[in-house]
Design goal:
TIM Barrel; alpha/beta; single chain; Enolase-like, domain 1; 427 residues; binds zinc ion; 8-stranded mixed β-barrel; globular; 13 helices; binds 2-phosphoglycolic acid; 3-stranded antiparallel β-sheet
């Protein structure tokens, strides 16, 4: 089958927040058609690859992506025309060279990633194999533990919820993926009942979790632990908790401002705060506990908690092999968050995963707060045996679609797949 590229066409579509994003269609010479859509973050790391926006205030408040779309249609498409879509590395490296900047500032990571993902999907379709199989390096598949963000705060809640951005439930003790998802959804509903009883609104934030104006940053942990019990599960054993405070968002001049509690904490005080939370609640991981440039604070956090829980770097590493390497060498963090659009190609994302895995680190594939129904990351997580996928609450179509895709993959793989479970967490 001739899998060389016939046409590439990009368009501007909307993401789950009503902001423009890039969608790419690829047609191969063998007439296979495939499509991919690019997600978009709100609490983005400073060092992420550039998401190209038009900055034309007359359209979408400046958030249009017509420049990125034009870059695909007029620069990338002619350059990749006739190239073998099955050579992902060559496709990705050609775009990296065409861009010529260290952070994809010229063509845009949103333009490049759309093509990178669509090319992979096109080849899988043309070979009539599932995307996870095409992207997979072996055939011993691992279904991820879902990290379900059931309570949203920070910039993902528009009405001053918790300072911490994400409170996730993690059904690590389930026997298989579909049971994990069931436990998670049941706990989500138990949490909704608890919030109603407390007369908290149950409207949801950007990632589908509830976003009440809680009394403190600790209250969600109490509520979630109770919800786990009320749903009939054992906190810690059946379902653990993961936190993403996304602390770059509340770090000002080296101090951490917890508005909800009227406290401003030095890094070492925030580390003590986390240690107390870990002593009190069944916390399995903390992501971005310290800010993206606070390598000293991060080092202290790793020293204090690195043997007890997984410490995941998102903003600090932005899926970059160089930054992850620096983290490994400096003894900072023991786990990495993986977002394809932070780096901009499938190939580079895979090298970051390989690097982290080589150091014995945990791997967590992640959605963005602005998503589409594209479920590429579900297949990608299985293909890379990452073991964990964070893709929001079991609520809002663009979140649920990823979980549903994993249900389909689990069904298809049957006995050929294992559920990652607690083993997916390093400590
Ligand atoms: P973002 O947040 O997608 O809005 O950047 C997600 C995260 O911080 O993990
Ligand atoms: Zn994060």
């Amino acid at each position: 089958m001739d899998s060389s590229i016939k046409t590439i066409h990009a368009r501007e579509i909307l993401d789950s927040r009503g902001n423009p994003t890039v969608e790419v269609d690829i047609v191969l010479e063998n007439d296979t058609r495939a499509r991919a859509a690019v997600p978009s973050g709100a609490s983005t790391g400073k060092h992420e690859a550039i998401e190209l926006r038009d900055h034309d205030k007359k359209r979408f408040g400046g958030r249009g992506v017509l420049t990125a779309v034009a870059n695909v249609n007029t620069i990338i498409a002619p350059a990749l025309s006739g190239m073998n879509a099955g050579d992902q590395e060559q496709i990705d490296h050609t775009m990296i060279t065409l861009d010529g900047t260290p952070n994809k500032a010229r063509l845009g990571a949103n333009a490049i990633l759309g093509v990178s993902m669509a090319a992979a999907r096109a080849v899988a379709l043309s070979r009539d194999i599932p995307l996870y199989e095409y992207l997979g390096s072996d055939h011993r598949y691992l279904l991820p533990v879902p990290m379900m963000n059931v309570l949203n705060g920070g910039v993902h809640a528009q009405w001053q919820g918790a300072d911490f951005q994400e409170y996730m439930i993690v059904p690590c003790g389930a026997p298989d993926f579909h049971t994990a998802l069931q436990w998670g959804a049941e706990t989500y509903h138990a949490l909704q009942d608890l919030l109603k009883k407390k007369k908290y609104p149950t409207a949801v934030g950007d990632e589908g979790g509830f976003a009440p104006k809680v009394a403190s940053n600790e209250e969600p942990l109490e509520l979630i632990t109770l919800a786990i019990r009320q749903a009939g599960y054992r906190p810690g054993t059946d379902i653990g908790i993961s936190l993403d405070p996304a602390s770059s968002g509340f770090c000002h001049a080296g101090k951490y401002e917890l508005k909800h509690e009227g406290k401003t904490l030095a890094p070492e005080e925030l580390v003590r705060y986390y240690t107390r939370l870990v002593d009190t609640y069944p916390i399995l991981s903390i992501e971005d506990g310290l800010a993206e440039d606070d390598w000293t604070g991060w080092k202290l956090l790793t020293k204090e908690l690195g043997t007890r829980i997984e410490l995941i770097g998102d903003d600090i590493f932005v899926t970059s092999p160089e930054l992850v390497k620096r983290g490994i060498e400096a003894g900072v963090a023991n786990s990495v968050l993986i977002k394809l659009n932070q780096i901009g190609t499938v190939t580079e994302t895979r090298s970051t995963i390989d690097l982290a895995r080589g150091a014995g680190w945990g791997i967590n594939v992640s959605h963005r707060s602005g998503e589409t129904v594209d479920s590429f990351i579900a297949d990608f997580t299985v293909a890379t045996s990452a073991g964990k996928l964070k893709t929001g609450a079991p609520c809002r179509g663009e979140r649920v679609e990823k979980y549903n895709e994993l249900l389909r993959i689990e069904e298809e793989l049957g006995g050929r797949a294992a559920y990652a479970g607690r083993k997916a967490f390093v400590r």
